[in-house]
């Protein structure tokens, strides 16, 4: 399954390589006074630049998606950025000297004159300049992407453009995931082993978060709060994420039992509705969400232990229709007044129909 995250980053990567290659060529053309025939120069630039950017973007983003995003060097951030940048540049250089030259020959056959800037790339000095420039750009982009990954999807961009300096209303889906029997586990395992267990669980959750395009709002102890824009597709993603995460933990059963003598499991609560979003803090800034949706989702998740259920949602979750490839049963549990609330709300249990592990 190709996630929307892959498509989004692919578009970003292609745009970056396209901007880089065009900027590099225009800068060289300016230095080399290569604008005697601007129409030919522009046509040549278009014919050569787009296939180079597209192929470079597809190869590098697929390489990241398969190798780096889930497994390789996920704990060694600087080394990861360094190696990714080198590999990206190698791909880009190979594409230029294979694909770009092919399309440049096609342009010549169409009667379009090759630019002096492109000819300069074939020289030793031109190659070294291209190598240095492309590595600096690649390193900067990978560095910013790593920061964005740590802050959360779109958070860096939202900070830079000041999107939430004034509170804005949004419609979101929130999922509270909490480690089951956490108090007992912490007492039995000790602080160090328990902390290591939580760390491993959240690492395994990361790949599922990527697959279902979830955004991490915050980690609180052994709890993680995820959210999506409120759409039918994302409601399906939320359901799929929970049950697929169960399958991931089950696949890693041998690892967890050998290292911690336990198979971790999570309980979850979800709610849907309007929230206010704003940028808060001065010493440490964050994008904060305020509204009943978070309170209801947290209270519902807290009921899982009392009701001995694993995945509870509110009635709001079914106010608009959605479909999911997972066969599920929806079981009405109770109508309750949640703590801190005055209105009653219907609580439902979401159950996967069979016990076979799933992983898409």
Automatic annotation (TrEMBL):
Pfam families: Guanylate_cyc (PF00211). The keyword Membrane applies. GO terms for biological process: cyclic nucleotide biosynthetic process; intracellular signal transduction. SUPFAM superfamilies: Nucleotide cyclase. The chain crosses the membrane at residues 9-30, 42-60, 81-103, 126-144. InterPro entries: A/G_cyclase, Nucleotide_cyclase. One of its GO terms (molecular function) is adenylate cyclase activity. Keywords: Membrane, Transmembrane, Transmembrane helix. Residues 173-301 form the Guanylate cyclase domain. This is Adenylate/guanylate cyclase domain-containing protein. It comes from Aquimarina algiphila.
